[in-house]
Amino acid sequence: MTEAPLLLFDGVCNLCNRSVQFVIRHDRKQVFRFAPLQGETARRILAPFGERPEGSVILVHRGILYTRSAAVLETLRLLGGAWGSLYVAKVIPKYLRDKLYDWIASHRYRWFGKREACMVPTPELQSRFL
Fold first, then answer.
1. Confidence at residue 100, expressed as pLDDT on a 0 to 100 scale
2. CA 61 to chain centre
3. Is 48 among the domain residues?
4. pLDDT averaged over consecutive 10-residue blocks of the chain (130 residues)?
């Protein structure tokens, strides 16, 4: 298991793809790695955690699996800077954060659309995708 944070995302979801692009732009140290949830890498990484966890974005870091709102907040914390300060939202009870996350996730295809295939990274970003 890699020490680098691994962001697993719904590869056909436009919102998820935009979220990955956001992380890439703000990951100044280029520590994040990425893989679509539809791929073999995600199946292999998630296998030790049992059945597939819920969420359109899942973060795996240092052997810990973060799902739903926790994945979003931990990703922002790891980005640091002003984005890391949003981690303060962790004080909101998890069930409320996850309720908002689930509501957005359930509408993501309708609001942002869906691709026919997973995102293909540019040659410059290829090494960050597993």
1. 92
2. 11
3. yes
4. 83 83 91 91 88 78 92 94 88 94 87 71 74
**Residue 120's pLDDT is what?**
65
Order of all β-strands in the sheet with 64-67: 33-36, 6-9, 57-61, 64-67
Examine residue 80 and state whether it is found in any structural domain, yes or no.
yes
- Is 127 contained in some domain? no
What total number of domains does the chain contain?
A: 1
What secondary structure does DSSP assign to 18-29, as a single string?
HHHHHHHHH-TT
Report the interhelical angle of 94-112 vs 14-26 (nearest 10°). 110
CA distance linking residue 100 with residue 115, whole number of Å: 24
User: Using an 8 Å Cβ cutoff, are 23 and 127 in contact?
Assistant: no
- Decide if 57 contacts 37 (C-beta within 8 A): no
Q: What is the pLDDT of residue 33?
A: 95
Position 117 in a domain: yes
